[in-house]
Amino acid sequence: MKSGDTNLLLYAMNRGCAEHAASKAWLDAALAEPREWMFADQVLFELYRLLRHPKVMARPLTALAAVEQIAWFREETGFLHCGYEEARWAGVLQAVKSQGERSGLLVHDAVLAETLRAQGVTRFYTRNVADFAGFGFFEVVNPLI
């Protein structure tokens, strides 16, 4: 099972960024085999926030347009989806502890990593390879290089 990070979805949607073409190609490949991909709701909520942020988007989306975009990803692409499960709390704490002093910066990544781990994700695509490589239970790939 594969998954992807918020940054790649954002770049795929943002024609004005340098990473657009490579991210769009990655997303198109994922859309061609949607049942092989699992996206966490956390990623979609992060995407919503970024699509509305004026420092991220030259023309931020309205609340309605951003909701429609994340709803499309979750409900119409055929991708599998998951959310944080309370039963994974101990795993999240262990993932945070494993990061030592970096944990403050990576707490959201730890929650995401543990959520995906619980769903059997073995390959994760992100631009931020170093942030996820330390969790040690799946392959982390940067499709932009």
CATH-defined fold name: Rossmann fold
Count of separate structural domains: 1
Number of strands: 5
Question: Which value, in Å, is the CA radius of gyration?
Answer: 15 Å
Structural class: mainly alpha
CATH superfamily annotation: 5'-nuclease
- In whole angstroms, how far apart are the ends? 21 Å
Task: Outline the structure in words.
The chain has 145 residues and is mostly helical. It has one domain (2-141): 5'-nuclease (Rossmann fold, 3-Layer(aba) Sandwich), CATH 3.40.50.1010. Helix content is 51%, strand content 10%. The protein is built from seven helices and five strands. The protein has helices at 6-13, 20-31, 41-51, 63-75, 89-97, 103-118, 129-133, and strands at residues 2-4, 38-40, 80-82, 123-125, 139-141. The strands form two sheets. Strands 1-4-5 form a three-stranded parallel sheet. The longest helix is centred in the C-terminal third of the chain and has 16 residues, at 103-118. The radius of gyration is 15 Å and the shape is globular. The two termini are 21 Å apart. The model has no long low-confidence stretch (mean pLDDT 92).
Topology:
Elements: E1 2-4, H1 6-13, H2 20-31, E2 38-40, H3 41-51, H4 63-75, E3 80-82, H5 89-97, H6 103-118, E4 123-125, H7 129-133, E5 139-141
Parallel strand pairs: 1-4, 2-3, 4-5
Key words describing this protein structure:
single chain; 145 residues; mainly alpha; Rossmann fold
